């Protein structure tokens, strides 16, 4: 499919006046550096590090194009983005002027085809716009009247001779040229300047004079689920686990874990993420709550990978066989979900690599192998990989492992701590995999410094964990949402996980059920990607003293949960989460990243934002707008006024409109200023859809 641009312009437009012969910006084939060009084009968007890496999008994503473009003097210019799809189809996106005085130009297109798109920014002397601007001023002032009409007649006559234009368009241009040439009907001549049909012709197929083009940029468009998905994490060993009379455990397995899949699908999730499923080492095995004294019945951390039973290409015997894993993947697929597997490049002291490839680890001066540390945390049960002693060997092994799991149906990998491995390694690995299998998705679990997180995204990671987990106040959330939807949106796709086995924030520990409701609503509506670790829907909020981790952490022990009993008791967020995921599917505006617009309120704890998709960019052909108003203080009842810029979603200022709360089904008439009452203990969030169809 071709892109669905904000406004399309047929290729015939490029066949208007002959381009100026001089070298255009960035297109010189000589050895000399490219000049700025006859019509300067700067700040092209989207681009990543001046084109070092391609920008990113996913199929169906609306992408913003832009540039700074201008010329000397007062004559007017026009700007277009010239797109070429992976199939070779060409299309044009009209760029409109940005903020006055900035010489910026912006426009949007929906990119549907997967693969590599290319584009250039075209800047041209807009002969019609310049004449029209001058003619309106001079004719109404009685200055150079005949000269203005003569110039207009010549422009329209020349355009009418263009055989690339539609016949009815050429006829209208000829008729208007004749009218301008006549001096017998002054009102008819002046009316030509006000004809909206002529203005639209000039906009869609402009009268071009001088032209310049930017260098070519590229955008990699990946499959939709790379950018729009709802993730659910659970430990298969806990699903169906039973404690025996003697204190030992019978582990859950892929068969019992598959019984959980229908409930996960019913909540609307489409990716099931499993922590490592490989054999677990016994050396320095961790006991409950990360203690060093594991008992004989303690299963150990799944991230301490490797034992006599095998390493990264093996399945823990308690979980089942390869056939059982394939059956689990098939069961998920039958419910419309896919399985994401953990890729943790580290090893327990018992991993076969330790004896077969000791060069893949770091040996200390005392002869011991260095274990993992993140002071004050110590992971004596895990050896980190050294990527420098035998880079070719470790690369070949990791690629083999990834391709092995791909052969069993895995197309998504959640990568553990990628920021502790060389960035160039990930650029190589993801490049190798995506070169042959562009549908494979890698999620970076990197809660680290911004530069590293962004670099991982630039070199290939389709998704990344983010700072959302720790952004709780209105001010923090506004800054975060503004950043991810604008500053980094061309390459960084944040997956807004609300919790993880490692992270139970103070907000969730002390905010009660309201905190869980608020966090889920924000994550599900602010970004196209979000995720939940099991237990969140049960309001699990007790932390190990002095930490952000759940007490009795599932990383170190079995943790079966009675989800049905919690739902029966009204102690589950499952139905609300299901509603959120349903609303995400029903509202294409929520499937976009770049369209978040912040609004304001008179209360520092009331966060307000909207997501809008115009009819021409929406896959349904209908405009879609969702407004979120959230009380981010889970301990209070708030009454205030919220202030909306309704022009952000196509409604003129001062025009009332109807909204429906998709959670409570309540309908109100709203406008620019609206009273709200948000009770954190009953209704902490409004998720509103605008009922009227708008442009």
UniProtKB/TrEMBL annotation:
Region (Disordered): 1-34
Keyword Nucleotide-binding: no
EC class: transferase
Stored Pfam families: GLGE_C (PF21702), GlgE_dom_N_S (PF11896)
Catalytic activity: alpha-maltose 1-phosphate + [(1->4)-alpha-D-glucosyl](n) = [(1->4)-alpha-D-glucosyl](n+2) + phosphate
Regions of compositional bias (Low complexity) in chain numbering: 11-34
Alphabetized UniProt keyword annotations: Carbohydrate metabolism, Glycosyltransferase, Transferase
Domain of life of the source: Bacteria
CDD domains noted in UniProt: AmyAc_GlgE_like
Site (Transition state stabilizer): 502
Record: residues binding alpha-maltose 1-phosphate: 286, 346, 381, 417, 555-556
Record SUPFAM superfamilies: (Trans)glycosidases
Span of domain Glycosyl hydrolase family 13 catalytic: 229-565
Active site residues according to the UniProt entry: 416, 445
Subunit comment: Homodimer.
Family: Belongs to the glycosyl hydrolase 13 family. GlgE subfamily.
Functional summary from the UniProt entry: Maltosyltransferase that uses maltose 1-phosphate (M1P) as the sugar donor to elongate linear or branched alpha-(1->4)-glucans. Is involved in a branched alpha-glucan biosynthetic pathway from trehalose, together with TreS, Mak and GlgB.
Name used for this protein in its record: Alpha-1,4-glucan:maltose-1-phosphate maltosyltransferase
Organism of this sequence: Labedella gwakjiensis
